[in-house]
Write a structure and sequence with these properties.
By secondary structure, the chain is of the alpha+beta class. The chain contains eleven helices and ten strands. The protein has three domains: 179 residues, Jelly Rolls (Sandwich); 55 residues; 51 residues, Homeodomain-like (Arc Repressor Mutant, subunit A, Orthogonal Bundle), CATH 1.10.10. The strands form two sheets. A six-stranded antiparallel beta sheet has the order 1-2-9-4-7-10. Strands 3-8-5-6 form a four-stranded antiparallel beta sheet, with no helix packed on it.
């Protein structure tokens, strides 16, 4: 089957600079609107979404140009694009790439919300469009990523997966709106921009929990003053960036301890703690037991 038809494109009007035959198509079902692939050579293509699209990346980096910006979707992240959106896609051959596209049509969104009133009485999930999400950001992003991996392994329950994914997207959209309401700015556009910068910092901290950037460096990363960053981050998360980072580290430590026999000294060093005794004290504060008892 022609790849352009699998992607729902018109071969005459689609721009592909490199041969589409370098894609290893693992999942071919255009009617269901899903595509699971890995790329072995450089690939560039242009496409237009027909439905709401979620672009998951399992390995490597997928680059999308959409909504006026380039989005580098790394492993463990996903991007949400609106219906009828043109985008350019690029992946490089130097690094293996494996991802999945999940398209959700309006009727499926309506089913997930319990009726035809979805599009009439409720706003579309605009807060999600063009947003890059880390799989570990919250319970909804974590579950969405789990669904994408489940679907890559077993495609038989695709419709059920789409219904659950639709509900998760809507919950994620509402949470995003609630988060923005916590921010102090008066203008909605200002709250949107601050929220976008804080979520970018959140994704960075989730990707590199062993690093300990200073408040000044985090502020520079966000393009904000240290005072503004500290105040906004605390209003959004109820904790400072340092406290947020420590919580991430502790959650990662517990997950590692539950599946391995690693020693406390080695684990604390892996997570960026210079003193194993300090790491043990902080771990016990979070979970009520020292790390040695989780083996």
């Amino acid at each position: 089957m022609h790849l352009l038809h699998i992607l729902g494109m018109n071969p005459v009007h689609s721009d592909m600079r490199n041969s589409y035959m370098h894609l290893d198509i693992l999942l071919k079902d255009p009617q269901k609107g899903k595509l699971d692939f890995s790329a072995s050579q450089d690939l560039e293509l242009a496409h237009r979404t027909r439905h709401l699209g979620i672009k998951f990346c399992f390995e490597g980096t997928e680059n999308y140009r959409a909504l006026g910006n380039w989005h580098a979707v790394g492993a463990g992240h996903f991007l949400v694009l609106p219906p009828d959106e043109h985008f350019d896609f690029h992946c490089a051959s130097k690094h293996p790439t494996h991802g999945m596209c999940m398209d959700i049509a309006a009727p499926m969104l309506e089913t997930a919300l319990g009726g035809d009133e979805f599009l009439g009485n409720h706003p579309q999930p605009y807060d999600l469009f063009g947003r890059l999400f880390h799989a570990e950001s919250n319970v909804w992003t974590r579950r969405l990523f789990e669904l994408s991996r489940d679907l890559a392994r077993d495609k038989r329950n695709y419709d059920e997966v789409l219904v659950e994914a639709s509900g998760l997207l809507w919950s994620l959209n509402l949470e995003s709106k609630r988060e923005k309401e916590k921010l102090p700015a008066k203008k909605q556009t200002t709250r949107d921009e601050i929220h976008k910068r804080l979520k970018r910092l959140e994704a960075y901290l989730l990707d590199a929990p062993t690093e300990a950037p200073s408040l000044e460096n985090m502020a520079r990363f966000c393009g904000m003053s240290p005072f503004h960053l500290l105040r906004s981050f605390k209003q959004l998360h109820g904790e400072t960036p340092a406290q947020y980072l420590e919580r991430i580290r502790m959650a990662k430590a517990r997950k590692i301890l539950q599946v391995s026999e690693i020693g406390v000294t080695e684990l604390s060093a892996q997570l960026g703690f210079m003193d194993p005794k300090y790491f043990t004290r902080r771990f016990k504060k979070y979970f009520g037991v020292p790390p040695s008892q989780l083996h």
